[in-house]
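Can you make up a protein sequence with its backbone structure tokens?

===
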Amino acid sequence: MTHTLFKQLALLLLDVDGVLTTGQVIYNDAGQETKVFNVRDGLGLRLLREAGIPVGIITGRRSMALVHRCNNLGITLLKDGVRDKTEALASVLKEMKVSAAETAFVGDDLPDLPVMKRVGVPIAVADAHELVKQAAVWTTCAHGGQGAVREICETILKARGQWDALIQRLFA
């Protein structure tokens, strides 16, 4: 069933803390926030974008580390510091001219539930809160910040029959 849902995807949206990161927030002595991102997740997102599937971020926290990571990955669809993720979702869907049914959202914690209930393909990372897992149509094997996003990207590309040709074209 999940693979059928992945075939219709037109947009992948992600939360950040607990999805693209392990959920830890690190502050240095100067009070600057640092985030640790998984390089393999980044490659997965690049492959997805290369296959024509846009990627965006909807997160409640603001972070310059996230802005730098998005710039590095070419992700321009960034809604950070949002109080109401469902409002941000509506804005993104309108901006991208995509329906909620064609959209996947990856979450890990309770603030993600309202968005997950509105998209066609809600996905939870392996270490997500139990209610988030219950709201998901699919849960990754990998934990957030530890390859979950790469797992999602590869699964989507394989379900759509794009994986082999994309790898052949880019890396052979």
Q: What stands out?
A: The beta strands are 11-14, 26-27, 33-34, 55-58, 77-79, 103-107, 121-124, 138-139.
